[in-house]
């Protein structure tokens, strides 16, 4: 069995952002040389998500407004922020959108369903964040 590990680094210009990282994951898969196996992608931070969905701008705006209703930004709204932080909403948004994705690899390609793409969801950006890609297989 082969194993391949790579980290991606992001520093978004806005606090909250969704980025399609499918090309970066496909490039890591190509480098790995693995044709059949599994690919794990997860952020190394508790205020960011990796998730799979459609690359459709309207949907991304819907995600953003839905998340803002569920966990609105606000320093005085949360227990977590009593210690001086302001990112309680980002922890909650990350939990809603999920930590990681695992995608099957078949014939050297990410074996997606229709319209599936991999996204990095940033909820407390404007600082350096890492995303781990781990690929195992033959
Ligand atoms: Zn925090």
Your description of this structure?
This protein is of the alpha+beta class and 138 residues long. The protein has a single domain, classed as YjbQ-like (Jelly Rolls, Sandwich), CATH 2.60.120.460. 25% of the residues lie in helices and 36% in strands. The protein is built from three helices and eight strands. A five-stranded antiparallel sheet has the order 1-8-3-5-6, with helices on one face. A hairpin with a 2-residue loop joins strand 5 and strand 6 (109-110). The protein starts with a strand and ends with a strand. Residues 80, 85, 87, 91 line the site of zinc ion.
Record keyword descriptors for this entry.
138 residues, alpha+beta, Jelly Rolls, 5-stranded antiparallel beta sheet, 3-stranded antiparallel beta sheet, 3 helices, 8 strands, binds zinc ion
Categorize the overall geometry.
elongated
CATH superfamily, please? YjbQ-like
CATH architecture: Sandwich
Low-confidence stretches: none
Q: Please state the oligomeric state of the protein chains shown.
A: single chain
**β-sheet strand percentage:** 35-45%
Q: Share of helix among residues? A: 25-40%
Mean pLDDT value:
97
Radius of gyration: 16 Å
Structural class: alpha+beta
Note the run of SSEs as H and E: EEHEEHHEEEE
Biggest pleated sheet: 5 strands, antiparallel
Straight-line N-to-C gap: 5 Å
Bound molecules: zinc ion
Strand order of the largest sheet: 1-8-3-5-6
